[in-house]
Design brief:
This protein has 706 residues and is an alpha/beta fold. It folds into 3 domains: 267 residues, 2-enoyl-CoA Hydratase, Chain A, domain 1, CATH 3.90.226.10; 179 residues, NAD(P)-binding Rossmann-like Domain (Rossmann fold, 3-Layer(aba) Sandwich), CATH 3.40.50.720; 218 residues, N-(1-d-carboxylethyl)-l-norvaline Dehydrogenase, domain 2, CATH 1.10.1040.50. 49% of the residues lie in helices and 12% in strands. It is built from 30 helices and 20 strands. The protein has an 8-stranded mixed sheet with strand order 13-12-11-14-15-16-17-18, with helices on both faces. Helix 1 runs parallel beside helix 2. It is globular and about 85 Å long. The chain starts with a strand and ends with a helix. It binds (S)-3-Hydroxyhexanoyl-CoA. (S)-3-Hydroxyhexanoyl-CoA binds next to strand 6, helix 3 and helix 11.
Length: 706
């Protein structure tokens, strides 16, 4: 064995007559410019070296390759391009073999597709997830993959972005061989030697014939296009993927590549790509809270949930699904039975859908126990209180927890608004108390706000992040204030929506404008889903402390007074004559709104969809800026992730503050100042927004400041 060239990102080592090229760019061997240069040079040197009979591509570390370097998108491109490198690999006159361990994703799989033979280790995952970043495979993937596995399977992979495991990859003929081994180098060398000894020559994917049956392939393209019409949700790149596959069918390979390149560059330039890439990195940044850098999490195996209502049961299911042992506590037998029933209902639903069998349910529930006795929490590592939203009730639970829990147990409160400092101060161990704000349904929704009170220990915060990892949640660190990050901002833009409703827009117009923007539901649909009674109770509680000079829209109160709480009562802003999915506009609601306008002395005016959006987004962005300014959110990206994962904000827009950057902060500020002319009390520009505009910079600049 002798070492040949040593470009830092691609190591080149001769093993007998096989040149091994190792992609070496931690952590995922992304195909940054150095790797691309290294690969190009190494392939050339292999071609020129008579001692080399074949080339083996492997990845250093855990993965073969995670694809193009996402950090390069949006920056000045540097030669060589990935398509050029990939072409060089496929053109090699000597056989090239890729041995895949870990992941081969995006450009990583495209490199493997350009190799002449592919071997996957057990545990490997392959995929073309570019669509999740607003892109299409841009290094020949849209042309090679359909030729290799046919249009239907190729479209499925590219439109879903899903990863296939090694076995499925073999079934799809995406790889030629599986290896039940954990050393890609050894398995790859053995396979390459075998190929050499059987005189297997160069075999190029571009010459593969899976697109042979033209009418069938065309049918599949049409079917994909039809499906997309129903579910693409405003995304551009899925349409581009279908066009590129169509080009693979209709055009010679080289022309198809040119079409792919054109479509790729179009996607690369789109704000959707910028939004989705922002979301990708932001999801990783939120994990890096200051406490997780300095403290180790406490061990968590035994979890307890106090309260078996919708929230408590959802949290219990989430913990059970993560393999944890869970004890549920309720105050009486009836409530406990209901709590257990709520948990079982989730698993029964899965059985009904064929996603679980009775044995699976029994195995999961073997880790679940229910009790009326707080003493049964003595060994719990983490207790999550999920009783109703009332300070006295919560403090009473914490008093019990303080009495029975072992030293070092983490005591968490699932609250959406309440002051966690006041809860912490009510026990003898405030350093163990933290807020965990789950979103309903808690076993489905990804967001977990980790609310950090003043006296909490750093390792308790780290434990909460570790819990989120185990539960597969997206954690966001939040400071203590009324509503934390999400609900605090929600309260403000909901008011903006109410103001517009009273001033002349119908709730149906407002919902439509926001659905058109990309939200799955508008604010009044959300209110009907959540139930108007909860907000009504909060409004009544806060009535005494409300600023009497502030504008207060009473329409919601009028609906609640009639018992119209939304879906659960069959009517709210909408009528649900045939159940929750049958929302229709309600003329009686419109009449109530009219009457309220008259009572408030308002002459209604018309609102265009763009004005609705401008006001709604300005309110959301302004309060988002306040939340960052006050340190409730660590960075703008924490606000973005909160809204993407907890409030249905369209991911491809990157979150409200990323959207604000794209819209332009001077314009956001100008909008707020324009609206302030009518209602200066409500529309007060955030000091952070003003400062960023003065400095000529944007929210994103704060995401990178250390
Ligand atoms: C593409 O290939 C386009 C081509 O078709 C055409 C081009 C012309 N680049 O997720 P993790 C970072 S588009 C740069 O925590 P895991 C990540 O930010 C690309 N950085 O680890 C994080 O950094 P940090 C198509 C990347 O083990 C660190 O690596 N490919 C990239 O849970 C660890 O990441 C994809 O979409 C990248 N490509 O999961 C794959 N990938 O430590 C995207 C990761 O500073 N990546 N990083 O926070 C993934 O799905 C996962 O990261 C992966 C590893 C499964 C690879």
């Amino acid at each position: 064995m002798s070492r040949e060239t040593a470009l830092p990102s691609v190591e080149s080592t001769l093993h007998g007559n096989i040149l091994v090229l190792t992609l070496n760019n931690p952590p995922v061997n992304a195909l940054g410019v150095e790797v691309r240069r290294g690969l190009l040079a190494a392939i050339d040197s292999a071609t020129d070296n008579p001692a080399v009979a074949a080339i083996l591509l492997v990845g250093a570390g855990r993965h073969f390759c995670g694809g193009a370097d996402i950090r390069e998108f949006g920056k000045t491109p540097q030669a060589p391009t990935l398509p050029a490198v990939v072409k060089h690999i496929e053109d090699s006159p000597k056989p090239v073999v890729a041995a895949i361990q870990g992941v081969a994703l995006g450009g990583g799989l495209e490199v493997a597709l350009a190799a002449h033979y592919r071997l996957a280790l057990d545990g490997a995952r392959l995929g073309l997830p570019e669509v999740l970043l607003g892109l299409l495979p841009g290094a020949g993937g849209t042309q090679r993959l359909p030729r290799l596995i046919g249009a239907k399977a190729a479209l499925d992979l590219m439109l879903s972005g899903r990863h296939v495991n090694a076995r499925e990859a073999l079934e799809l003929q995406l790889v030629d061989r599986l290896a039940d081994a954990d050393d890609a180098l050894a398995a790859g060398l053995a396979y390459t030697r075998e190929l050499l000894s059987s005189q297997a020559g160069v075999r190029r994917t571009r010459d593969a014939r899976a697109l042979g049956d033209q009418p069938l392939q065309r049918e599949q393209i049409n079917a994909a296009r039809e499906q997309l019409a129903h579910k693409s949700k405003g995304l551009l790149s899925p349409h581009s993927i279908i066009r590129a596959v169509e080009a693979a069918l209709d055009q010679p390979f080289e022309q198809g590549l040119q079409e792919e390149r054109r479509l790729f560059l179009e996607c690369l330039d789109s704000p959707q790509r910028a939004g989705l890439v922002h979301a990708f990195f932001a999801e990783r940044e939120v994990l890096k809270a200051p406490e997780t850098r300095i403290a180790q999490p406490r061990p968590i195996e035994q979890v307890a949930v106090v309260g078996g209502g919708t929230m408590g049961a959802g949290i219990a299911v989430s913990a059970l699904d993560a393999g944890l042992r869970v004890t549920m506590i309720e105050r009486d037998q009836q409530a406990l039975d209901r709590g257990r029933g709520n948990v079982e209902k989730v698993y029964d639903g899965l059985i009904e859908k064929g996603r679980l069998d009775a044995a699976g349910k029994a195995a999961t529930l073997a880790r679940f126990s229910a009790s009326l006795d707080y003493q049964d929490l003595a060994q719990a590592d983490l207790v999550i209180e999920a009783v109703f939203e009332d300070m006295a009730a919560k403090q009473a639970v914490f008093k019990e927890l303080d009495r029975v829990c072992k030293p070092g147990a983490v005591l968490a409160s699932n609250t959406s608004y309440l002051d966690i400092n006041a809860i912490a101060d009510s026990v003898s161990r405030p350093a163990d108390v933290i807020g965990l704000h789950f979103f309903s349904p808690a076993n489905i929704m990804k967001l977990l706000e980790i609310v950090v009170p003043a006296k909490v220990a750093a390792d308790v915060v780290a434990t909460a992040f570790e819990l989120a990892r185990k539960l597969r949640k997206v954690p966001v660190r939040a400071g203590v204030c009324d509503g934390f990050i999400g609900n605090r901002i929600l309260a403000v833009y909901r008011q903006a929506a109410d103001h517009m409703m009273e001033d002349g827009a119908s709730p149906y117009q407002i919902d439509q404008a926001l659905r058109d923007f990309g939200f799955p539901m508008g604010p009044f649909q959300v209110a009907d889903l959540a139930g108007g009674d909860i907000g009504w109770a909060t409004r009544k509680r806060k009535a005494a402390t409300r600023d009497p000079a502030a504008r207060y829209v009473q329409i919601a109160d009028r609906l609640c007074e009639r018992g119209w709480f939304g879906q659960k009562t069959g009517r709210g802003y909408y009528l649900y004559a045939q159940g929750p999915r049958s929302a229709s506009q309600d003329p009686e609601v419109l009449a109530i709104i009219e009457a309220e306008r008259a009572r408030a002395g308002i002459t209604p005016r018309t609102f265009s969809p763009s004005e609705i959006l401008r006001r709604y987004m300005a309110a959301m962005i302004n309060e988002g800026a306040n939340v960052v300014h006050e340190g409730i959110a660590l960075r703008p990206l924490d606000v973005d992730i909160t809204f993407i994962h907890g409030y249905g904000f369209p991911r491809y827009r990157g979150g409200p503050l990323k959207y604000a950057d794209q819209y332009g902060l001077p314009q956001v500020l100008a909008d707020i100042r324009e609206f302030a002319e009518e209602d200066p009390r409500f529309w007060k520009p955030s000091p952070l927004l003003v400062e960023l505009v003065d400095r000529g910079t944007d929210f994103d600049s704060l995401n990178h400041a250390d």
